[in-house]
Amino acid sequence: MKKMFALIAVALMFAAPAFSQDAPDTPTDAEAVEQAAEATDSTALAADTTVADSGVTVADTPPVEPADLAPAEDVKEVLSLHQEVKKNFIEGNATFMSFVLICLIFGLALAIERIIYLNMATTNSKKLLEEVEVAMEKGGVAAAQDVCRNTPGPVASIFTQGLDRSSGDYAEVAKAIEDYGSVEMSKLERGLSWISLFISLAPMLGFMGTVIGMIGAFNDIAEANTINASIVAGGIKVALITTVSGLIVAIILQIFYNYILSKIDSIVLDMEEASMDLVDLLYQRKLQGK
Predict the structure, then answer these.
(1) 270 in a domain, yes or no?
(2) Measured on CA atoms in the order 60, 66, 71, 72, is the torsion positive or negative?
(3) Is 181 part of a structural domain of the chain?
(4) What one-character DSSP code corresponds to residue 167?
(5) Using one digit for the tens of pLDDT, what is the confidence trace for 40-71?
(6) Domain annotation covers residue 19
(7) Number of domains comprising the chain
(8) How many Å apart are CA 73 and CA 176, to the nearest integer?
(9) Long-range contacts of 229-237 (CB under 8 A, 24+ apart)
């Protein structure tokens, strides 16, 4: 028995250092699982505490999507000139804009008709006078009248009337040319009063749209019982668009009107000079006995 206890004691003495070397300094698997669970609980507790302090619950927090990270840039629509004019026409109260447009259409139609007529009425008076003189040398007054009838323009018409009175004295021929010159001048100025009317009427219609737009804006303020930019913006926009449209129409027609007046003045001056030359020609031929 004593030998048996001695063997057991010796075996225990050799086994103790082996157990001490095999035992790790780190915790066992069970202890590691325990420590991980405690760390998770502490993290969750800290997160709950932060959310609770901010007053926002996890359920109320919206998910963050990639599109929300970068704000989208506003894309401004670029309109062509035709689309811009159409948009402003619709927004500027179609009633008044229609009247302004009518003024522009009729004014331009009359202006273009006058320009075409005046260009056709322009004559090379010096060349015509030379042809009349040559015709009178060859075939007399009748041949000269044929040349004038085949030539368009008020100068040729005045020459025709002067040749009809060629048998009279100097004062009679001058009076006939002067009277018919007034008739031709009135023909050149035909339609100018209507163009002038449209020039005056277009801005007036625009200003009327302005006044009505402002009245509508103040009515909106009275109904809302407050002053707000969004309330009066619509009425003010209508007022400004109609005013600008009327002024643009008036400016365009005024340019054509002044061009027509300058053209008429040029033709009238040419008529007066050519008439004086014709009277002098007839008077010289009469002095020569022809």
Answers:
(1) yes
(2) negative
(3) yes
(4) T
(5) 455 444 444 444 444 444 444 455 444 444 44
(6) no
(7) 1
(8) 79
(9) 237/91, 237/92, 237/213
Question: Which tokens belong to 109?
Answer: 């139609």
List the domain range (segments joined by +) for residue 187: 103-287
Tokens encoding 115: 């320009």
Q: Which of 233, 241, 187 is nearest to 209 (CA)?
A: 241
C-beta separation of 271 from 166 below 8 A:
no
CA 261, 149, 146, 142 torsion-angle sign = negative
How far is Cα 38 from Cα 6, in angstroms, rounded to an integer? 47
Residue 18 domain-assigned? no
Q: Where is average pLDDT lowest: 25-39, 74-88, 224-238, 261-275?
A: 25-39
- pTM over the 0.70 mark: no
Contacts of 103 (CB under 8 A, 6+ apart): 198, 201, 202, 205, 249, 253
Average pLDDT value for residue range 184-193 = 89
Q: Which residue has the tokens 């020609």?
A: 281
CB 176 within 8 A of CB 164: yes
pLDDT at 33: 43
Cα torsion through 94, 99, 101, 106, rounded to 10: 160
The residue whose two tokens read 């991980």 is 36
Average pLDDT over residues 272-290: 80
Band (20; pLDDT cuts 50, 70, 90) = very low
Closest CA to 99 of 4, 205, 257: 205
